[in-house]
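Quick start: read one record
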Amino acid sequence: MRILILMTLFLTLVSCSIFNGDERDEFEGLTTEEQFYVTAQRQLNARNYRAAISTYQALESRFPFGRYAAQGQLELIYAYFNNLDLESARTAADRFIRLNPDNPSVDYAYYMKGMASFAEDSGFMSRFLPTDPARRDPGRARDAFAEFSMLLALYPDSDYAADARARMIYLRNLLATYEIHVATYYLERRAYVAALNRGRYVVENFQGSPLAANGMAIMVESYLRMGLDDLAGTSLALLKQNFPDHPSLDGNGNFIVRSDVTNPSLLYTASFGLLGDNVDNTPLAPTTRPFQPDSPVMNEPPPTERSLFSILTFGIFD
């Protein structure tokens, strides 16, 4: 038992000495704040981002109030971003904004925070496979849009404002396209109220996007499918007035209602579209009310109330 305890203590001391030796070797010869900063910059310029991150962290821990502290925190954001540690880049940007709200370069922290969300929205697989960004979860795209909006609201004359504004236009169209995809999905599955809400959301919140016309067309079709002809007519008039060349309108300005839905068969799905069919010829739904106010069905007298005797005898005797 005593031998076991001694061996455990020996191994603990050896491991501690190895760890401390590695730490000393990593920053051996670095004693001043300037030496740490110059080393970190050299590593950053050499694209050795992992080493640069360690050196910037050591610089901040040893000289938290030095003259290179704020600049080191800014460059740490950049190192995290290029090392694809995007969550740490956002955290570092938030920390810099909180600790240095009056720093002349705080707009850079806002910009890099938006860039981290923007880059994460691209996704890992999109670097290798051609994927549609409008069909992915839009959470990070919304975050990036909000963060770039904050930059423009607080620092409209920033050097990064023009780039942020261009990225916001892209993100706006991306988010609108995502909503149209979801609305179309609901429409094809005859969930007309859900499709209508998505189409209205695009029209109300993405007015500068070319996808607003698609949102209005979805509203028209949803209203038609639900038999709300007056509301469909109002939306159709707005569509023809603002987007007369939209593909959902024919040469005479009439709305083109689709007659089939996308419903891939199992064979089509299993063969990646090489075999089988992708169309269900079942009509979506009637595009007018099934019963007009003057219909004889609507004017039939209401059924008479059943007696208790009829109910107890299951209708055999009235």
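The chain has a mean pLDDT of 77.
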